[in-house]
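hey
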């Protein structure tokens, strides 16, 4: 593929999927049908796809994650909040197989997957984005996605559109990934994560550094993914952004989960205010 030097500014986000197939119940709807996204039956949402129990990770005796419980459900989003250094990224890293846990369990569709490496989890339908994305800078944007697509596991695919179209980067397909802006690199990271066809997606501070308009657009994308049936875990400090997407939140402090409930309840919780939000 011919690589061009510099991406055009990414114009309008182009949300509809490619191909002639009508969106299926387990497909991301196009923009025009976003308001009539498929509804999951209650028995599907009551059983967590991902169940984390007592998960711990220590670095040289320092407990970065200490006994966290977390559930993720199809078609729902959990926000993961907490002060800097409270263990959010480490939790994502342990769940997604970057680190082996020091203790606890991670159960994906009833199977124990704790300690399995990221590439295995990716094939099993669990994928993540990175707080600081590292695209393959010497490859084109298109090849960055194509390289992931070759590892897809068809069984769990919910998003079956073109990931670059979905995130609005189709116009940059032939540019080197290294020439993207930091916002565009974040969108490319989301596209790469989607290219693997996950049904559980962990998102680490996708909103940080985006403009107000970009935040609104990205919130819309995540809502579409949720409505299509993906289970989302979203690490974020931006309350206005989270509010648009999440059903519940978990608040972490010093590696432990100290609150679980709605975002509305979290921002009124005395302990959450004291350790995180401030007055
Ligand atoms: N590989 C590592 N080795 C040693 N300590 C680590 C490692 N990764 C994380 N930590 C420590 O674990 C703690 C939790 O870090 P983590 O990055 O998970 O926090 P976070 O909640 O994601 O913070 P932020 O909101 O700033 O992204 C911090 O004290 C950090 O220094
Ligand atoms: Mg982090």
């Amino acid at each position: 593929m011919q690589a061009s030097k510099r991406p055009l500014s990414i114009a309008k986000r182009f949300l509809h999927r490619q191909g002639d197939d009508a969106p299926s119940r387990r497909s991301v709807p196009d923009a025009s049908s976003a308001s009539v996204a498929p509804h999951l039956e209650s028995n599907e949402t009551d059983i967590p796809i991902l169940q984390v129990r007592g998960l711990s990770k220590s670095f040289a005796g320092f407990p970065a994650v200490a006994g966290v419980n977390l559930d993720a459900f199809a078609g729902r989003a959990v926000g993961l909040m907490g002060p800097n250094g409270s263990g959010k990224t480490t939790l994502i890293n342990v769940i997604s197989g970057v680190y082996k846990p020091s203790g606890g369990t991670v159960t994906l569709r009833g199977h124990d997957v704790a300690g399995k490496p990221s590439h295995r989890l990716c094939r099993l339908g669990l994928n993540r984005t990175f707080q600081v994305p590292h695209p393959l800078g010497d490859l084109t944007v298109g090849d960055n996605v194509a390289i992931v697509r070759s590892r897809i596991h068809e069984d769990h695919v919910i998003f079956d559109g073109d990931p670059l179209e979905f995130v609005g980067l189709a116009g940059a397909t032939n540019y080197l990934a290294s020439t993207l802006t930091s916002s565009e690199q974040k969108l490319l990271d989301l596209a790469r994560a989607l290219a693997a066809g996950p049904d559980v997606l962990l998102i680490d501070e996708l909103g940080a550094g985006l403009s107000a308009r970009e935040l609104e657009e990205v919130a819309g994308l995540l809502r579409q993914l949720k409505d299509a049936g993906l289970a989302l875990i979203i690490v974020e400090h931006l309350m206005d952004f989270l509010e648009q997407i999440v059903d519940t939140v978990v608040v972490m402090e010093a590696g432990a989960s100290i609150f679980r409930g709605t975002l509305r309840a979290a921002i009124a919780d005395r302990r959450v205010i004291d350790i995180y939000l401030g007055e």
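The two ends are 53 Å apart (CA to CA). The longest strand covers residues 62-72.
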